[in-house]
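$ run holo --ligand "phosphoenolpyruvate" --emit tokens
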Amino acid sequence: MSQPARELYPLVGRNKELEKSVIQIDRVKIGDSKPVIMAGPCAVESKEQLFTTAKVVAEAGGEILRGGAYKPRTSPYSFQGLGKEGLELLKEVKQETGLLVVTEVMDLRDIQLITKYADILQIGSRNMQNYPLLREVGKTKVPVLLKRGMNATIKEWLLAAEYILEAGNKKVILCERGVRGFQEYTRNILDISAVPVIRHLSHLPIIIDPSHATGHKRLVAPLAKAGIVAGADGVMVEVHPNPDQALCDGEQSLTLDGFKELAGEINFLAESFGKEVGDVLS
Ligand code: PEP
Ligand code: MN
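-- output --
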């Protein structure tokens, strides 16, 4: 018999007595009955780009604005993000739209600054096993979105989450964003099974990111919907007012109209399937 989840993962593991965790940030509840939509550009580029996107995200029922100010880029010659200026823009747009903000932290030295701007700290795929970083965000009180490492097993991912809880921060949201495979058509392979597996093993909320999983805008909506039907607590998608001009990840960014359509479909699915979707504990 396999080892009980509470033994393997004393803090993030689930058992029958333990309710699913709901992470509440202001009025937004992540892990509750309604799936949460997080959307925005890959990187913050300008006030106009961010505000135009955020307005549509808010109008379509999205609750959290994403946008990287510090970007983990494969090439050191690619756009690296606006840094502090990007954080300032996120704050301005948050004030104007009422959206909450999620943004990535890559470096221990930036944590203090970013916590002044972010409602959720994102730990990206490349840093899922950066244990000093996990410990440090674990010492803050700001909720953490922990993306799955592109080469990580579910066990490694849950143990990474365990580091954050062990350091004191119980507010962790998991994000499945695809893992590496052998085929070249999609950027990664969205492990849709991770959704019910996590719901079975852990009390933490789980969302999916079909943008980084696929790398193609036309694949984002079908997989976002599949994730919701599989029981995800929300989605994170990239949206850009002009994807062809994006400084980062334009190929996988939805247009504003594409996003509106997807948001409507997600809200419809959420109403049709209700709360019990994906609860596979027993
Ligand atoms: C991102 O969300 O901006 C990002 C870089 O994603 P990932 O860490 O999943 O590659
Ligand atoms: Mn991106």
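-- notes --
The chain is about 35% helix and 15% strand.
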